[in-house]
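Hey,

Quick one before I head out. I ran the complex with PBG overnight. Inputs first:
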Amino acid sequence: MQNRDKLSPHAMLNLPIRPRRNRKSAAIRGLMRETELTPAHLIYPMFVQEGEEDTPIESLPGCKRWSVTGIVQECRRLYALGIPCVDLFAVVPEEKKDARGSEAWNPEGVVPRAIRAIKAAVPELAVMTDVALDPFNTYGQDGIVREYGDGRYEILNDETVEALCRQALCHAHAGADIISPSDMMDGRIAALRAALDAEGFSAVSLMSYTAKYASAMYGPFRGALGSAPKFGDKKTYQMDPANAREAVREALLDAQEGADFLMVKPATLYLDVVAELRRCTQLPIAAYHVSGEYLMVKAAAASGWLDERAVMLESLLSIRRAGADMILTYAAPQVAEWYREEH
Ligand code: PBG
């Protein structure tokens, strides 16, 4: 006793409050843990293409452009791993693109075919679909473009909303559970809700891309789809990365218009926005850990500088801690496999 006191003068501190007591063992830390990350919180974004090939995506290591046959097989595996939901994006060959993006509401398009096949094979898996025109029009813009002929152009809001309603109805007819408009047009949530209800799809949910920022982090995704804007940028509809109050304004509008849940994108660079929306609405909140955020971890890990598993899990946990109920992430299958190893 005498000796130990000599070695530890700080044991003399009169310190009744010691937060370290709550961290003293794995068991105690488990009891104190505020946030959890499990496969049940994850939505997996997937790319589906025409033909029978499943092709690896160079810009998104671990992800593929799936054929309809391939995606069904993969969905069985994902559901067995505990992933509750997938989000489908179309890969559209150049020859099927036109100025209006009309392939977006072709009932025989690759997305409606994939929805039908997945719902037939794994009915319990929730199928979400992306609604926006950028993979389908020749401009790579989310909306309908009016060109003025002198290099100026405009993304038409109300005409776009009408097109999005057609696309959403096409997905609903095919059996989609959740429609997620990623376009950032004004008024699209109310219009989509009305269009779905009018055709008897009152049970189809709407996840609004409420605060989608004009971020530089979408590069690898646009590479995967060949959907980068052919000219200009998306700043007249996606939000300015400098703004947080504006996200609250969008959230309150989406809630009023009938969104079932809200989404913030990107996720880790916008944790303040996730936390802010958590405070200002009662709706569930999703966050999209986007392609660039995913690739930063993968690339750093591939060069040996970061521990992939630890950094990926910490990134996703931070999104949950900020207040997101669910996370869209390309790491979903990997996280579910790691989770299985530990449980
Ligand atoms: C476009 C869309 C984008 C993403 C999802 N939907 C790209 C963009 O807005 O240009 C990005 C997803 C990601 O980077 O992972 N409707």
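The chain has a mean pLDDT of 96.

Talk tomorrow,
K.
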